[in-house]
Amino acid sequence: MQLSHLTKAILISLIPATSVCAAGLDRSGQSISTFLQPGNYFEAGISILDPEVSGKDKDKNNTGDMAGDYYFPHAALKVQATDHFSVGLIYDQPYGADAEYSGSNNFVENRPVSFKGGTSVVVDTQNLNLLFGYQPNENWNLYAGAVYQTVDGTVLLRGNAYSALNGYDFRTGEDESVGWLAGVAYQIPEIALKASVTYRAEITHKMNAYENFGSTVIPGNPLNPVISAISSSDAKTELTTPQSVNVDFQTGIMADTVAFANLRWVDWSKFKVQPYQFGKLSQYLGQKGFVPNKPNGFNLIDYKEDQISATVGVGRKFNERWGANVSVGWDSGAGNPVTTLGPTEGYWSVGTGVRFSPAENYFIGAGVKYFWLGDADAVTGAHTEAGAFTDSNAIAYGLNIGYKF
Q1: What is the pLDDT of residue 217?
Q2: Residues 6+ apart with CB under 8 A from 109
Q3: Less packed terminus of the chain by CB within 10 Å, N or C?
Q4: Could you give the CA distance from residue 331 to residue 307 in angstroms, rounded to a whole number?
Q5: SS3 284
Q6: Average pLDDT of span 297-314
Q7: pLDDT, tens only, 43-58
Q8: Residue 98 and residue 47: Cα distance in Å, rounded?
Q9: In this structure, how many other beta carbons lie within 10 angstroms of the beta carbon of residue 270?
């Protein structure tokens, strides 16, 4: 079942909307499949997600659609320097969030105060991966590399759901840090079999984040002296993006047809965002009994469980120019209840993609994927009941190009 390089590119390159709606803040899925393409290879694309997430706060007020549309690009370059050594660059945006509440509910502040508006979150990350591979023979590929990562996030808490933290602002500015990845791949070209395991280490960011407590503008607030004292302190906030493991597998199952699978684990259960001043105030609230059972404070964002996701599918080449694939996906979510800033728990999905190759050395691909998002109970950082979100969904679109040179 010998497959040409071009056929492999058409069949195996999944639609560029693989993990755009995963648990936690996961977006891209951090695939390195482009680095495992034969020869010299370049790929670029863009993914767009249109989610619809709505529910009711604990007082049964409708939230409306709180999830924002977003898009993110990706690009990769792989060069086979010699028969045994390869080098590659992969750019993607692995984590992110974009959401804002509006209307009349417990996540919106409608009083005439300086922090009027809806609770919102915007998180943008960028990864530039530099990989080096060693191929002792045609079957094995050992690879490792460095990861340059930037993080830029803003969280605004508004409304009665957040009690004393109504009006809180958190902005990181763009912070940069470095990490690493390593993995191994095995292939049998004659039957289009390829398997790989990739580990990514966690990346820690330490930053001088901006924090502001809007409640200080309310006269008579008994927390004003405490907030003033906390706000005068200056210490770094620490944020660590999680470690992860990707397992990819593909094999020919008949002439011009391959089956593929991807498994992903992300260590979200250890992820937390506790800005320095926010943490000090949360400790005070817990120790004084304002927040029950939280003597050590609480986090702005955290997750209860690790994420496990899987995608399986089949790709087929129809002729020298056209190929297509279909896939089914599942994501466990990162536990329930969840943060009000991302109130869904996992998903099921179906997707399809097509590839058109005008010439032997390049292709153009497009894909679409539909997500049934899991129902979730939403809680604040203090894990107090905030609302319930049901019947949410999303649709993703993708476009990419691949070029072999």
Answers
A1: 61
A2: 115, 116, 117, 118, 158, 159, 166, 167
A3: C
A4: 7
A5: helix
A6: 94
A7: 999 999 999 999 999 9
A8: 15
A9: 12
Phi, psi of 190 (to 5 degrees): -60, -25
3-state helix, strand, coil in the chain (%, to 5): 10, 55, 35
| Helix, strand or coil, per DSSP, at residue 160 | helix
Question: Over the stretch 226-245, which tens digit does the pLDDT of each residue have?
Answer: 888 887 777 889 999 999 99
| H/E segment holding residue 9 | helix 5-12
User: What does residue 280 show for φ and ψ, rounded to 5 degrees?
Assistant: -65, -40
Q: Kindly state the tokens that stand for 114.
A: 């300086």
Domain of residue 28 covers 5-404
Task: Measure the CA angle with vertex 64, ends 62 and 68; round to 5°.
Answer: 150
- Specify whether the backbone of 178 is left (phi greater than 0), alpha (psi in -120 to 50) or beta: beta
How far, in Å, CA of 256 to CA of 157, rounded?
53
More confidently predicted of 22 and 320: 320
CATH number at residue 38: 2.40.160.60
358-369 per-position pLDDT tens digit: 998 999 999 999
Q: Are 347 and 391 in contact (CB under 8 A)?
A: no
Place of tokens 């399809």: 352
Distance between first and last Cα of the chain: 24
Classify 286 as helix, strand or coil.
helix
- State how many domains the chain has: 1
